[in-house]
Amino acid sequence: MDNAERLFEFPHRHLLGIEGLTPVEITALLDHSETYVEQNRQTNKKKSVLSGRTIINLFYEDSTRTRTSFELAGKRLGGDVINMSVSTSSVKKGETLIDTAMTLNAMHPDVLVVRHPDSGSVKLLSEKVNCAVINGGDGAHEHPTQALLDALTIRRRIGHIQGLRIAICGDILHSRVARSNIHLLTTMGARVRLIAPKTLIPTDVERMGVEVFNDMKAGLEDCDIVMMLRLQKERMNGNYLPSVREYFHFFGLDYGKLSVANPNALIMHPGPMNRGVEIDSEVADDFGRSAIHEQVEMGVAVRMAVLEILTANLDQPAPRNL
Ligand code: NCD
Question: Could you give phi then psi for residue 168, rounded to 5 degrees?
């Protein structure tokens, strides 16, 4: 059975990043995810498209949302999902990432979902194994399923992405969520603004087709979407900020700063949130405008669609390994 033909055209063996995906491929993934949003709201959430398939979650960094939703996504599609706990594995005995990956590869998984603190590590691993690899976040580089779930959330709330003014605010420098979202949103025709202190903006980021602001009110003016990011302290070596109090004063999202945005502006956050640091509790819990829980819901649907298409592609006689 030619599953991939039946589903949609997605000529990639792995999902390592958003960079390089076309608007048609992104749209096809989002369209397919929609069917799973509906299915996940039914009493019976189970399908059997991944029956007989094995998915291994290999997470070298902490995770609540990403790991749980990949697990749920795999199980709802009838696959066998194994969560490798790095803290109790041979990694603690000094085994390298590649040796661990090759060991798991020998057990014939169909998909490895990998999160690792080093940018580029997941791609390296994908070159050594026979299965499909999904990047669950590699250092400050990419987190493709997060950008897809954010896009699905926006599309369902507003109906389109093209032409929207979208502000991504906070620790852009250390954020793979920001990088994947910049790729996706600019590819889909949104106008992306980055708002952060100078120390938390990567150099020459304008080359990615975004506008940079160092002042919240200037950057948020007339925005349709406000995406907040956590200060990724685990990736900071050195002092980037005078104090958390001062950071909240200048860059924390509260109703005062939000007042210059579009009155219906949607508030988003990939989680985990640090209340009182990058976002005020009142704004985070604003049920009408905050899409934070919807983002989590969309995460399961998007991961189901990605798992389904990549496993279907494994059946292709000559995988087009892009
Ligand atoms: C993000 C991540 O891990 O990159 N979280 C997530 O996957 N939802 C963002 C973060 O850790 O701040």
Answer: -110, 120
Q: What are the phi and psi torsion angles at 12 (to 5°)?
A: -135, 140
Nearest CA to ligand 1 atom 7: 66
Which pLDDT does position 74 carry in this prediction? 98
Which residue has the CA at smallest separation from atom 11 of ligand 1? 272
pLDDT tens digit string along 79-112? 999 999 787 777 778 889 999 999 999 999 999 9
Confidence of residue 2 (pLDDT cuts 50, 70, 90): very low
CA of 17 to the centre of ligand 1 (A): 15
318: pLDDT strictly greater than 60: no
Hey, what's the torsion of the CAs at 260, 266, 270, 274, to 10 degrees?
Answer: 50
Q: Give the mean pLDDT of 176-187.
A: 98
Compute the distance from residue 317 Cα to the ligand 1 centre, in Å: 36
Q: Is the peptide bond preceding residue 242 cis, with omega within 30 degrees of 0?
A: no
- Report which ligand 1 atom has the smallest distance to the Cα of 299: 8
Q: Are the C-beta atoms of 182 and 192 separated by less than 8 Å?
A: yes
189: left (phi over 0), alpha (psi -120 to 50) or beta: left
Q: Which has the higher per-residue pLDDT, 233 or 134?
A: 134
Ligand 1 lined by 74 (C-beta under 6 Å): no
- For residue 1, report the distance from its CA to the centre of ligand 1, in Å: 37
Atom number of ligand 1 nearest to Cα 66: 7
What's phi and psi for 225, nearest 5 deg?
Answer: -135, 135
177 CA: nearest ligand 1 atom: 4
| Overall average pLDDT of the 26-40 stretch | 97
Q: Is residue 266 very low, low, confident or very high in pLDDT (cuts 50, 70, 90)?
A: very high
**Sequence-separated (6 or more) residues with CB below 8 Å from residue 157:** 266, 291, 294
Atom of ligand 1 nearest to the CA of 176: 4
Q: How far is the CA of 5 from the centre of ligand 1 (A)?
A: 33
